[in-house]
Amino acid sequence: MQSSLSKISLFLSEFMKDALLYARYCGVSPFRDVGSSGSYKLVIESHAIEKGLSLPRPRKLFGRAKISYIVGELRRTTRGNSNFSVQMAAGALLGYKQLHVEQAVSDPILVDIEAALRDATHQKELISNPGTRIITPEHPGGESVLEARFSCRMFDQYRVPRADIEKIVSAAQRAPSQCNRQATKVYVFQSRSKIERLLELQGGAAGFGHLVNNLAIVSSELSAWGGAQQRNQPYVDGGLFSLAFLLACQERGYVACPLNLAVRHRVEHEIRSVGGIPAGERLIMMIAFGKPVSDESIRAAASPRRPLSEVLVVE
Questions:
Q1: Start-end of CATH 3.40.109.10 domains in the chain
Q2: Per-residue pLDDT at 258
Q3: What is the pTM (predicted TM-score) of this model?
C-alpha cells in the first residue's frame, strides 16, 4: 500500500514540476524571455505565410493579420529577433508580394510589405528565397532522402495500395525504441468522409485537406510505459517512428505532410472516437501522404534551417 502511495505521489510531483516548468518558460508565460519568445513568434507567423503560399491555389490577400504582424516586427528587427527569424520573415513577405504582383492585385498591405522590405537594412544578405521552393523530379531538393524530404500540400487523387502502406510502415519500424518496446501504432484512413472529419478536428489542413486521400494517425500505447520518469517517452518513441514514416514515404516515391496534434483532451477524445483508437493510446501526430500532383511543379514552403551556431554546442 505504501509503495502504491509512493508511486502516486511521485507521479503527482513530476507532473506538477512539468506544469510549473512549462508555465515559467513557455512562449506565453508572463515570466518568459520576451526576446526569445518574440523571435519564435515571428518564425511561426512567417511559416504560416509560407504554408499559404505552398497551397495549390492560394487565396488572394490571405493572412492579412499575420502579414501586418510580420511587417511590424521586420521594422523592429532590433527587438531581439535573430537573423534567422528576420530572414524567414523577409522571405515570406517577398513571396507574398510576388504572388500578388503576378495576379495584378493592388492593396495597401502590399505597399506596407514593399516599404518593410526596402527599409530592412540587411535585405540583400537576408532574403535568399521568396517563401517557397519549387520541387521537380529534376530538382528534388536534396541528394539524400533526408535532405530531399519536404512537407507536400499538393496531392494527386491517388489512394496508396495496402502493399505500399505495409512497406512504409515496415520500414518505419526500424526507428529506435526504448528497450525495443515498439509501442507505436499507425491507423491509416482512406475514406473521404472520415478523413474530412479527422482533418476538421486537427484544424491545420485548410486549403489542401480536400486533396488528402491517405491519412495516418500515429499513437503510442501507454501500457508500455511505467513510472513517472517515463512520462514523456511515448512522444519520443512516437516522434522517432513518425520521422521514419515520413522518410520511408519519400524513399518510395511518395510525399507526405506531418500535421501536429497540439489539441486539448476533448479534441483528442473526439479524434480517437472517429478513428476507433483505444483510450489507452496517446496521439502523436497525423500524416497526410500520397502521390504529388503530376501535371505541375510542386511549391513547398521554403522552411530555411537555422545556422549551426544557433543549434550546435560542443564542449
A1: 155-291
A2: 98
A3: 0.92
